[in-house]
Structures are given as C-alpha cells and as structure tokens.
Amino acid sequence: MNAYLHIPFCTSICSYCDFTSFAGQETKMSRYVDALCAEIQSSNLEGPLQTVYFGGGTPSLLLPEKLELILKTLHKKAGFAADIEISMEANPETVDLTRLQSYRDFGVNRLSFGAQAFQTEILKKLGRGHDWARVEKAFADARQAGFTNINLDLMFGLAGQSFDQFQESVRKVCELRPEHISMYALQVEEGTPLARQVDEGLELPSEDQVADEYAWAQTYLLALGYEQYEVSNFSNPGKACRHNWNIWRGEDYWGFGLSAVGTVGNVRHGHGEDLMAYIEKAPQGYESLLEKEVLTEPIRAWERIMLQFRTQEGVLERDVEAYVRSQGGSSYKERFNRFEKEGFISLIDGRYRATSKGYFVLNGILETLMV
Ligand code: SF4
After folding, report:
1. What pLDDT digit, counting tens, does each position of 156-176 carry?
2. Which of 15, 75, 282, 293 is disulfide-compatible with 38, CB 3.0–4.6 A?
3. Are residues 49 and 138 in the same domain?
4. Domain housing 15
5. Does the beta carbon of 56 sit less than 6 angstroms from any atom of ligand 1?
6. Secondary structure string (H, E, C) spanning 251-280
C-alpha cells in the first residue's frame, strides 16, 4: 500500500502555484499535525506500507518531532515494509544539516528539492525563497546527512529565461549528480499571480522554445546516463520514485491531509481545501473528512491508459482496444499507425509506448482515444 500526506504550509506563495498551501499560517501547523494523525488513526488503512510520500506545500517546514509523530502514527496503524520508501518534498531554504539528519533518523530516505532554475533573477520572478547557493548548500547537507536518493525539480518554459539560461540551469543541476531529476513546464494556472501578470502583458517563451528546451534536456540527460521513465521524470537506473511509479501503474493509494486525494478499490476520496474545517473535523474521524466518488470501470480503464502512457512501460495494445471498443469507438488504429510512422509512438511486444518526441505531444495522442 502507498500513502500520500499533504502538508499545506509554505513560507511564501510562488507566483505560479495553485497547490493547496498557505503562507503565514505556521502557528496552525501543530494542530494540523494532530488532525492528520487523528485522520490516520481512524481510517481503515491496511499495511504494510510500501511507500509514503510527504508532499505540499513545504513538508520540510515540519519540525522533526512532528514528522516523527506522523511516521509513528502511520507505523502503528499499518506497519512498514522492510524496504519502505519514505519521500519528502523540501525547499532548500527551509533545511539545515541538523534538520536533515533528524529526518533521516526518523526514516525519510528520499528527498525532493525544488531547485527550479539557476539564475537568481528568474527564481525571484517565480517567487521562490532561495537562490542557487541555497540549493547547493541544501544538497551538500543532505548528502552529509546520508541521503543517497535525492531528486531536484527543474522548470522550463519560464518567463524571462533564454534557451541558453535554461541549458545553464540543466547543467548546474547535473553537476550535483542527483539520482533523480523532475522537469516540469511552467503552467499558467487560473487565479494565480502569474496568470494576472500574463494578462497584464508578461511574455512567455514561444511554443517552439519550450519544445526545444524539453528536447534538448532529454538528449542531455540521456547522454549522462539518466533514464526517462516518465514524461517529466528522469533517474539513475533503479532510482525511479517508487511511490509515483506505483500510482502510475494503477496501484491503490491513500491520501491523508487537506486536499489530499486517494484511490482505494473503486472509490476516490478527497478532502476539500478548508484548513480550519479540516482541523476541526478530524477528531470526529476519517469518514467525517471525506468527499467520495465511486469510479466506474470505464473511468478506471481510461485513467490507467492515461497514466501508463506517461511511462516508459507504456500501455498494452489490448487494453487500448478494449477501452475504445467499450466506448463504442473503433477508428483509433489508423491514427495510431500514423503516430507510429511519424515517430511519436512505438508498438513493440503488444505495448504502445510514447517515444521521446511523443512525450511532448502526449495529450494530443491521448485525445485521439476519446470517443
Ligand atoms: S513552494 Fe511549492 S507549494 Fe509552496 S508556494 Fe511554491 S510551488 Fe507552491
């Protein structure tokens, strides 16, 4: 079993962010952790847990003793597999050696730092609270604390960042030799400060530049020995994020905490986005917090296809055929043959896989399956 835990606190809010997170609410963190533990205790979670993922928000704002409390609660409730992966997202400016050593002592064995870019002026525009020196310091501290599985997040398609500057960012990230690199295109989400800036005339890089950045980084990372195991994710062999892998493969996962989503069997549960409502309702038990949706088999099948197509493993041809037929369609084959000829997908041993080039137009490929 897999568990995701959401920690919805940040020191400030980045201009592009539409995750559920609050700045200046750290005084509520202790009550939030109690609520999270109450939710875990009163749930039907069954273990042993194979993976735990602390996402946010900024989970590295958690005091080590609070992290310990959450992990002890999870362990008591469900037990941990001997080779459990416990991942934590962290912002470079929130950690130091002592804190990282404590996280490691309490069982965290994978860190994911938001690095995003090398240039200070770009980081400032994004609203990030760190510069590159902080990234290097956090990374060095993490190594010293014993972490041997570290991800760095990097963004592309950034306003004001030239192609050369993007290349410089990728090179800087690679110089640190992290085991894992995630690379995300900047998205302009409605209601964010970035969306307002774009409305007011902020220029974003052209689609061609964004595509070139993605393609260049793919080639560069593959040449260094990283494997691209998913659209946005590259790792050294054997260092893929097991938590995300399991979810992309369609395994069940529990979500705990504000706005967290989980899928167990054919039920998807969510939590809403009201921080105080979450804190106040949690002592009444897990069920009081949930928004539930029953997923039909066609929805599950479509989700599996979407997720698996994002990965190196790809999708069984027979699953695609069965899904399209169940929806009353029949004509995807011709279009898929064309995608194959154009080098966007491959069909080998009964599995469709997106190629490196195909990853960039994956949404377009998937749209052709929607009947
Ligand atoms: S650190 Fe992450 S969660 Fe927090 S505001 Fe920035 S992007 Fe959003």
Report:
1. 999 999 999 999 999 999 999
2. 282
3. yes
4. 2-248
5. yes
6. CCEEEECCCCCEEECCEEEECCCCHHHHHH
